[in-house]
Amino acid sequence: MVIALKVIISLAVAMAWYKLTENQEISIAFFVLMLAISFMRPITYQSPTEREEYLEKFRRSKERQLNLENMRREEKKKALEEKKKRIEKEKKE
């Protein structure tokens, strides 16, 4: 409903401009401009507590990713070491 209202208002402004000036190109430009302006979102204020919560959540996520990556590296090292030991053991036999 709100979208339709925005389109109707933009169309009304463009039609009014066309009636005043008889210039179709500028009327179309006004229509597109009014649509673009009406669908833009204004900049909203973000409270410091919300910002801190977001940053803390981001830090925790980053730490978790680093921990997972370190665990994967350790598992790869252990698997490689076990493989080397198995190969050495097979060579000795």
Automatic annotation (TrEMBL):
Residues 71-93 are annotated as: Disordered. This is Integral membrane protein. It comes from Helicobacter ibis.
